[in-house]
Amino acid sequence: MTTLVLALAITGAQILLALAMGCAAFRILRGPRAQDRVLGMDSLYIAGMLLFLTYGIQTGRTLFFEGALVIALLGFAGTVALAKFLMRGEVIE
């Protein structure tokens, strides 16, 4: 019973994360300002990272955990670069 509940909870979380990714993609495509698009991109990479983590938990493979770590690092670096670009107009000084 406990295994079934855990499997259903993980599957439900994956469905909700996929819906969150769809909403974030909508915000990226539809956002009226650049700041809205950056926030949509943040939400998209966080939801993608969490989707990788839940899939890694479901399958038991460690490769997905490493992939989630790479997504987190690249997403953070991209957010910092976009924020610096929006504030100053240049990324490299």
SSE map:
Elements: H1 2-30, H2 34-59, H3 63-88
Task: Output the keywords.
93 residues; mainly alpha; Helix Hairpins; elongated
Q: What does it look like?
A:
The chain is mostly helical. It has one domain (2-88): Helix Hairpins, CATH 1.10.287.3510. The chain has three helices and no strands. Helix 2 runs antiparallel to helix 3 (63-88). The model has no long low-confidence stretch (mean pLDDT 92).
Short description:
This protein has one domain: Helix Hairpins (Orthogonal Bundle). The chain is 87% helix and 0% strand.
Helix segment tally:
3
- Show unreliable segments: none
Number of domains: 1
Q: Give the biggest sheet.
A: none
Quaternary: single chain
CATH fold call? Helix Hairpins
Distance between the termini: 58 Å
Could you state the order of secondary-structure elements as H and E? HHH
The averaged pLDDT comes out at: 92
State the helical fraction.
over 70%
The total strand number stands at 0
